[in-house]
Amino acid sequence: MQALLQNPAVQAGLIPFVVALVVAELLQRVRLSGLALVLAFAAMVYLTHVFAFGVLTAPRKIVVLGLAAPLFAILPAVFQGAWVRPLLTALGAAAAVWMAWRILENQALARMLLWGAGGAAYTAWLVYWSSKLHNHPVRAGAAGMALGVGTGVAAIFGASLTLGMFGAALGAAAARRGWITGEAARAHVQRLRHEMDAILVGVGTVVADDPLLTDRTGRPRRRPLLRVALDSRLRLPPECRLVQSAHHDVVVFCVAPEDDRRRTLEARGVRVEQVAAADGGRPDWRAVLRRLGEMEINGVLVEGGATGNWGALEDGVGDTVFFY
Known about the structure:
- This protein is an alpha/beta fold.
- The chain has two domains: 176 residues, no CATH class; 132 residues, Dihydrofolate Reductase, subunit A (3-Layer(aba) Sandwich), CATH 3.40.430.10.
- The chain has a five-stranded parallel β-sheet with strand order 4-3-2-1-5.
- Helix 2 runs antiparallel to helix 3 and helix 9 runs antiparallel to helix 10.
- The protein is elongated.
- The chain starts with a helix and ends in a 10-residue tail after the last helix.
């Protein structure tokens, strides 16, 4: 067993993967699953390099910054003030200078100022524009993938294998928001959305994927598409794209809503409907469909997630199932 645990593939691959998997599952409901990558990286560094905070060399400072960066990245999600982005930008510039200081202080004054100012300006620019992608997950994923993979490959060939692995892992993690179906399947889904009066998902899908749930065919509709979410305890994040884009076309079915959260969502154009609970405390499917029928909704496309799909099948309220 000891020999197995000391195997480099286990220390740098299997154990960090398991750590990331467990932490992502635990934190996904509070939208902090990205911290799983940090903890996986920390596990890999500890197991393979016996990392210590003794003399903070430039590589060690990069490791420290890699561990701390996601904590600062939480700021835009917690605070909405105009001061957040300038603060992150300033912290990024200062971190770049701090990381390279042992190298800069040994240079001539002109070169030290040029390198230091250039690194700080580049990092500040990168942080500023990256933070503007907070509400655009696809663009953020593409940017993170390009930056992470590029940094990782450069570090592997030019500097540090550990830092290269970290950069490549960042790119792989950022790219996880890609499609898992082909173009034909996605086009078919859009045709189904156009044919239906409503799209329905569970709150878990909203929290995990932050979808817009729109009809992108560009063809005229009989009536505006109604976007529906099942949310037992009204956990729908006010900052999600579904709420941010609501214009009296989003309905949330819940069982036991909190008054404050209900008022918050209704103030943003979301209609909150309270229905009877089924077994397990989730909204009763037949009560939901009955209420949608009263709204003159003739067709509902259920797109997930797993709990919602299973509930619809278990209650026998679906008439057609598509597999892609």
